[in-house]
UniProtKB/TrEMBL annotation, chain A:
<keyword id="KW-1003">Cell membrane</keyword>
<feature type="transmembrane region" description="Helical">
    <location>
        <begin position="152"/>
        <end position="171"/>
    </location>
</feature>
<keyword id="KW-0472">Membrane</keyword>
<feature type="domain" description="ABC transmembrane type-1">
    <location>
        <begin position="86"/>
        <end position="266"/>
    </location>
</feature>
<dbReference type="InterPro" id="IPR035906">
    <property type="entry name" value="MetI-like_sf"/>
</dbReference>
<feature type="transmembrane region" description="Helical">
    <location>
        <begin position="95"/>
        <end position="117"/>
    </location>
</feature>
<keyword id="KW-0812">Transmembrane</keyword>
<feature type="transmembrane region" description="Helical">
    <location>
        <begin position="129"/>
        <end position="146"/>
    </location>
</feature>
<dbReference type="GO" id="GO:0042918">
    <property type="term" value="P:alkanesulfonate transmembrane transport"/>
</dbReference>
UniProtKB/TrEMBL annotation, chain B:
<keyword id="KW-0547">Nucleotide-binding</keyword>
<dbReference type="InterPro" id="IPR003439">
    <property type="entry name" value="ABC_transporter-like_ATP-bd"/>
</dbReference>
<dbReference type="GO" id="GO:0016887">
    <property type="term" value="F:ATP hydrolysis activity"/>
</dbReference>
<dbReference type="InterPro" id="IPR017871">
    <property type="entry name" value="ABC_transporter-like_CS"/>
</dbReference>
<dbReference type="InterPro" id="IPR050166">
    <property type="entry name" value="ABC_transporter_ATP-bind"/>
</dbReference>
<keyword id="KW-1003">Cell membrane</keyword>
<keyword id="KW-0813">Transport</keyword>
<dbReference type="Pfam" id="PF00005">
    <property type="entry name" value="ABC_tran"/>
</dbReference>
<dbReference type="GO" id="GO:0005524">
    <property type="term" value="F:ATP binding"/>
</dbReference>
């Protein structure tokens, strides 16, 4: 719009004004990024929320004011409820993710490196993949009850399948030329796995990890809201019964932080481990 | 290294047959390479040059065939692509598969191919010529009795290729491996080889010793007569035949 309001600048010294007109030319791309632009949207939401609460337009029974949420959060930390719940939830998700990750990776390696393993494992996992993990909940409750073990198992199954799929695809996609090279330089089986297979499968493994960690939070939330007596989800479920929207928002913030921090950590690890990839294409 | 009929050979191939389905690619092929000898293998596209090299390298599993192959254990292969593992640094690529701590040897090999100081680089940070030099260092550091090279300079530009020829000649003179260089470039063959063999209809059709003094010049009339003879044998008539 600006170029229709002001005529192109003229140089008073009579030198060509190419640079000036070029700068005025409209670019087709979205242009330069706004500093901290991504924070603007969420900040705007909070501003609207605060205004609505302060003017009394927003009923606290529907959604508590931001400052109430902060105060509740502080209070929940002080009385130890929030740290306890966070630790319980972290333990469930962490254990599930750990077991699931180890099992998924081990199965992927077994299926990727031997034909027997492939025959036994791959078909089975693909069948399991077609059944949503949450659909297994009734059966698993029959078998395991509704204790901690059950929750960890549900999360672990979901994570294992996700990591298996990605890692296995990446393993079987390793360039045959590298296999040939490994034979020529006389690598034994273990060296081959360590120097060629693992590093070659790492990109896919990391995709699996990131999807798996997202999945583990998802399962956690579902599990903690249907049958739990502790954890963040339970805290929120109780708050729902008592109409405490501030506690629910605190729980959501904690879930959000879980997801954000775990993804950031994985991305950091990925950047470190896959440093060789960054150099691709110059 | 094996001794037969009083002659020492680094590579001895007898009656080698290789088939791909209905097509017989190698049909009773015999070939000897003496220790330290530089043999260039020429042939038309699809004549089975790579099949022979892969047979000698022990890289042909899914083919049917027969024959007697005697090769030493210390074989290195240089491929057309440098085939460096992108996730290993240059030095780790060079010493890949060598038992024990070979890093010092690897460093020396890298220095020999003119890449001292690039040990910590990732392969993707190097140019095509540099990557191929790393691949050469990876071959040499194993002190191979036989070096098999499958068009190792095929993907390089002309200028880089000239430099690589000089480097390969120099390295072979120093380390004296028996070399089998598969190439489609007659000039390259005449420039580098002690002997040129031509693969025709599944066998060695022409076996020409090249006894030109070093340094070999393309302008040398003997160079040109070898070149023309080989081109003729490959079915290409170009320039004047003497």
């Amino acid at each position: 719009m600006t170029h229709t309001l002001a005529p192109p600048a003229r140089s008073t010294l009579g030198t060509p004004v190419v640079a000036t007109t070029a700068a005025r030319k409209r670019r087709l791309g979205p242009g330069r990024p706004i500093p901290y632009g991504r924070a603007l949207g969420p900040l705007l939401v909070i501003a609207v929320w605060s205004t609505a609460s302060a003017t009394g337009w927003l009923d606290p029974r529907i959604l508590s004011a931001p400052w109430t949420v902060v105060a509740t959060g502080v209070e929940l930390v002080d009385n130890g409820k929030l740290p306890d719940s966070v630790l319980t939830s972290l333990r469930r998700a962490g254990l599930g993710f750990l077991f699931g990750g180890v099992i998924g990776t081990a199965l992927a390696i077994a299926a990727g490196l031997s034909r027997v393993g492939e025959s036994l494992i791959d078909g089975t996992v693909q069948v399991k993949r077609a059944i949503p993990s949450l659909g297994l909940i009734p059966l698993l409750i029959l078998w395991l009850g509704i204790g901690e073990g059950f929750k960890v198992v549900v999360i672990a199954i979901g994570v294992a399948v996700t990591i298996y799929i990605q890692t296995h695809a990446s393993l079987t996609g390793i360039d045959n030329r590298y296999v040939e090279l490994a034979e020529v330089v006389g690598l034994n089986r273990w060296q081959f796995v360590r120097k060629v297979v693992f590093p070659g499968a790492l990109p896919g493994f990391f995709v699996g990890l990131r999807l798996g960690v997202t999945g583990s939070w998802l399962f956690l939330i579902v599990l903690e809201q249907i049958n739990a007596t502790s954890g963040i989800g339970y805290l929120m479920f109780q708050a729902q019964n008592y109409g405490q929207s501030d506690v629910i928002v605190v729980g959501l913030v904690v879930y959000g932080l879980f997801g954000f921090v775990s993804d950031a950590l994985l991305r950091l690890a990925e950047r470190r481990v896959l440093a060789w990839r960054r150099t691709m294409g110059g | 290294m094996a001794s037969h009929d009083g002659r020492v050979t680094a590579v001895r191939v007898r009656d080698l047959v290789r088939r791909f389905g209905e097509r017989t690619v190698l049909d009773g092929l015999d070939l000897d390479i003496a220790p330290g000898e530089f043999v260039a293998l020429l042939g038309r596209s699809g004549s089975g040059k790579s099949t022979l090299l892969r047979a000698i390298a022990g890289l042909d599993y899914d083919v049917t065939g027969s024959g007697d192959l005697r090769v030493p254990r210390e074989i290195s292969v240089a491929f057309q692509d440098s085939r460096l593992l992108p996730w290993l640094r240059v030095l780790d690529n060079v010493v890949l598969g060598i038992p024990g701590d070979a890093r010092e040897r690897g460093r020396r090999a890298l220095a020999e191919v003119g890449l001292a100081g690039r040990e910590r680089a990732w392969p993707n940070q190097l140019s095509g010529g540099e990557q191929q030099r790393v691949a050469l260092a990876r071959c040499l550091v194993r002190e191979p009795a036989v070096l098999l090279a499958d068009e190792p300079f095929g993907s390089l530009d002309a200028l880089t290729r000239i430099k690589m020829h000089d480097l390969l000649r120099e390295l072979c003179a120093r380390h004296r491996p028996a070399v089998l260089l598969v190439t489609h470039d007659v000039d390259e063959a005449v420039e580098l080889a002690d002997r040129i063999v031509l693969l025709e209809e599944g066998r060695i059709g022409l076996d020409v010793p090249i006894d030109l003094p070093a340094p070999r010049s393309h302008r040398d009339p003997l160079f040109q007569s070898h070149r023309d003879r080989l081109l003729l044998a490959l079915g290409i008539t170009e320039g004047a035949t003497p």
